[in-house]
Amino acid sequence: MAIVCTVILALTIIGRLYVDYAQARQNLFDIQAFRLLLDAANHLSAERGPANVMMAAEASTDSSASKRLAEFRTRSDAALDGVAAHLAMPYGLHDHPVPKRLFDRVREELSQARMEVDRVVSIPRENRRVEDIQQAIGQMFVVVDELQAAIAWKANELVNSDTSLAGPVLTGQILSDLREYGGRIASQIMAPVALGEKLELRNLIEVGRTRGRILELWRLVGGQDALYRGDARLLDSRRDVERLFFGKGLAIIDTLIAEGRLSGSYSMTAEQLTTRFVATLQPLEHFRSEFLNLAVENVVAARDRALKILIAVAAVTALLLAVLIGFVLSIQVSIFRPLLRAGEEVIGLAEDNPSALKRDLYHASEMLHLFDAIDILQGKLQERASLMGQLKLQAETDGLTNVLNRRALDQLGERRVDGQTKADDASILILIDLDHFKRINDTHGHLAGDDVLKEAARLMRSLVRPTDIVARFGGEEFAILVSDHDLAGAVALARKIRLALQLHEIITSDGTRLRVTASFGVAKGRGGQDGWRCLIDAADAALYRAKLSGRNRVRFARETLTQPASESASTLRDIKAKNYRSAASF
After folding, report:
1. What is the pLDDT, as a whole number, of residue 94?
2. Which band of pLDDT confidence, cut at 50, 70 and 90, is reported for residue 330?
3. Rounded distance, CA 189 to CA 74, Å?
4. pLDDT number for residue 230
5. What residues have CB less than 8 Å from 473, skipping those under 6 apart?
6. How much is the pTM?
7. Is the pLDDT of residue 579 over 70?
8. Assign residue 265 a region: left if phi > 0, alpha if psi is -120 to 50, beta otherwise?
9. What angle (nearest 5°) sits at the alpha carbon of residue 391, between those of residues 390 and 397?
10. What's the pLDDT score for residue 257?
11. Is residue 505 left, alpha or beta, with left meaning phi > 0 and alpha meaning psi from -120 to 50?
12. Measured distance CA(6)–CA(4) in Å, rounded
């Protein structure tokens, strides 16, 4: 039985290792196929350069610009054909082919874009309009956008196939987008430069948007340091990008924009712009190429490592089987007896009833190691219990504001009875709603809204007593469960927080200075499941009145709902109306 079990275990391990090896082979094939797709996108982006030069120059089929455009078009077609043809499929692997409809759409858009470029080139230069050139350039943008859809589809398939590819695949996609938008920023001012006309507002808007996207993509690349830390090639390439593209390339664009705002007189021609700016794009292409090279090298290393482990484990397994066959014949009491005791101890650990293992000198060294392992396991179980306590704390805490969440607050409120406190003990609840919070999100963005929520929670915690409980009730709403039963004191606390919040200036992470106000509803009632729900309804009704009164108000209920939450809605409305009549305001 020992031999049979060992064989089964060995086959299980070897099978798992073989799966790892096969997955490493598959990953190598997938990353190479994905690289072909990114290369095709790079070729299509590069084709815009000679196309822009042609649309800015006089039409001449014999010109060097025309020959260069034809050469770039041939390279783009070859790259698309290479992707469509796929790589040779090694044995035991599968492909993730991009749907044919996506490639057909790319080819259709590419054909229309080239026709539009040729149409503009055929127009005498003195009759060309900025709109004609911009329309042709925009059509070339559409081609790359269509191919980006195919790249996104391929990336999603590869990540779903193996999540370990997420890092290189997504970073490769980001670098491809960075090269594309790096080229676009020059193309977006190419038409006015080519015809010597003043920049229009839409050109400035497009350039501003593209610059923002470039900076965001570069920030994302900077967040992937772990993927290329320590690799000298990538570090050098990254420095070249920062020095040439971000240092010189964007400076060229800034200079032309400054000139184009004033007049249509530019310090360089469209051909000079293309030549100088494309040179600054080379580090981006080199950086992308080096990153993909490193990704392929890492996958190859993983494949070779998996193969070596597979061979080593198979050899070790064969050796262990040979030793086991001889060892089974000489098993003695020094192994079986402590083994049974160890089994009992493991059962005790499973039932949370550990006991001290007695070690005897006649125990085999293997058994002593087993006892040590059980001791370690016992320590790990204790550590796990501690971690479970930490996880419970995290489950009860709002991740944004670091105060209690709604679930934890409800649990506290509902167990204020049933042995926690006396049945006649009262609870006081303050509900707080930040006024016009949606306007903050819409005007300044959700990150600014998050900053407001965090600062509001911090301010509330600083103003309440250590025994009071601050929680995030939901969205922009907060709740304070007051530790004493003095309604007047709770109302005073609410007024204090309202005034402090009104006077407090909040500075967001981007430096924006905001002031917010809040509406408050205070109610007093009993705990327990039904009483807690009634208390929430009463505080919510008071909060609603504060909003109706113009916001930035404190309202409180003199009486609290005492009926269970299952009572009819008409009864609830009647009691809320009664609370409204009996409420006092700030």
Report:
1. 81
2. low
3. 26
4. 61
5. 406, 409, 431, 432, 479
6. 0.53
7. no
8. beta
9. 90
10. 93
11. beta
12. 5
pLDDT for 566: 39
Q: At which residue do the structure tokens 């700016």 appear?
A: 277
Q: What angle do CA 140, 143, 146 make, to 5 degrees?
A: 150
Task: Write a three-state SS string for 127-188.
Answer: HCCHHHHHHHHHHHHHHHHHHHHHHHHHHHHHHHHCHHHHHHHHHHHHHHHHHHHHHHHHHC
Determine which of 31-45, 161-175, 570-584 has the lowest per-residue pLDDT on average. 570-584
Task: Check pLDDT > 50 for residue 580.
Answer: no
**N-terminal to C-terminal alpha carbon distance within the chain:** 82
The span from the CA of 417 to the CA of 394, in Å, is: 25
* pLDDT value of residue 129: 92
C-alpha to C-alpha distance for 469 and 489, rounded to whole angstroms: 15
Which two tokens mark 33? 């196929």
**Contact indicator for 109, 142 with CB cutoff of 8 Å:** yes
Q: What are phi and psi of 540, to 5 degrees?
A: -65, -40
> Any idea which residue has 């998996």 for tokens?
306
Residue 434 belongs to what H/E stretch? strand 426-434
CA distances for 493 relative to 483, 490, 496, 520, angstroms: 12, 5, 5, 10
In this predicted structure, the answer to whether residue 59 has a pLDDT above a threshold of 70 is no
Calculate Rg over the CA atoms of the chain: 35
Are 367 and 339 spatial neighbours (Cβ–Cβ below 8 Å)?
Answer: yes
- Band the pLDDT of 419: cuts 50, 70, 90: very low
Q: How far is CA 536 from the centre of its chain?
A: 35
3-state secondary structure of 523: strand
User: Pick from 510, 448, 491: which is nearest to 586 by CA?
Assistant: 491
